[in-house]
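Weekly puzzle thread! Below is a chain. First person to post its structure in C-alpha cell form gets bragging rights.
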Amino acid sequence: MTGQRMRIDVIIPTYQPDGRLHRLLARLCAQTRPPEKIILMNTEERYYRPEQYADIPNLEVHHVTKREFDHGGTRRQAMAYASGDIAVFMTQDAVPKNQYLLERLTAPIEAGLAQAAYARQLPAPGCRDLEAFTREFNYPAKSRVKSQEDVEELGVKAYFCSNVCAAYLRAAYQEAGGFVSRAIFNEDMVLAARILQNGGKVAYAADACVIHSHNYTGLQQFRRNFDVAVSQAQHPEIFAGIPSEREGIRLVRDTARHFAAEGKWLVLPELLWISGWKFLGFQLGKRYRSLPPWLVRLCTMNRAYWEKETETEEC
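Winning reply:
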C-alpha cells in the first residue's frame, strides 16, 4: 500500500463523555483527510445520547458495560469493526488542534516510514505549569522515527506510544498480535514494542497535534503510576532489563532546572510532592504480586480490572 491513499478509521472508547467529545467528532469530520468511519466503543449505554451526535456522519456506536471494558480488550474488539487500512485510536478528551491532524499523523505510515505513529499532546487551557512542562518533555516539537535499535539510546522511551491519539497500519497491527486482551494500562506501548521487535518502526509526528492534559493530584499520579508499573511487570518480555526510573529521574531534573531558570521557585515543592507520589506508586506497582489484594485495590486507578482478575482466577 506504500504511496497509495489509504482508508482511515477512527476508534474512540467513551465513558460519560462531556462536550469535548462532540468537538472532537466535529473536528474529525472537518479534517483534510476525513475518516471513512468513526467507531465509538461506549461504556454504559444509558450515558449515550444519540441525538447529541446526529450531525456526525459515518458514526458507528457499540456499547459495552463498565464491567466488560478493558484497555486492551475493548480496543481489540473495536478493531474487528474497523475496515480501513489505518486505524487511529483516540480518547474522548483529546481534541484535534486543527484540520490537519489525521493527514499529518498518518503521513509517515502512508510514506512507508513507519507502521505506527502517535501525535503530539498540547496542554489544555487551565493546565498547571508543571503539567504543561511535562507535556513538552514527553511531546517535544521535533518529530522522530524509532526502531528497535533506539532502545539502547532511549531506553523504555523507545517503546513509548500513546493511544490518546495513535495510528496503526492494519497489517502491522495484525502481525504484532494486536492489543493484548487483558490490560490494566500501557496497551499502546506493548503493541508498539512488538511492532519494533518485529522489525517495524514507530513515528512520533510532532506536527499532528491534539489538545490533551490532566491536572492530576499527587494521589491520582500515585495510582496511575501503580497501574503503569503493574503493566510493565506483566510483560517482562518487553520491559525487563529496561528500567523506567532513568526517564523519571531525567524528567524531574529537567523540570527543576527549567523552573529554577525562570525563577518559578514555588513550582519546585509541587514537583517534589508529585514526583514522590509517582515514585512510590511505581515501586509498589512493580511489586504488586507481593501485596495483599486489599492493598492492590487501594492503590490502583482501575479497580474493575482486579475484580475481573479475581473472577478469572476463580474460574
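Puzzle host: Confirmed. Bonus trivia for everyone else. The chain has two domains: 8-211, 218-309.
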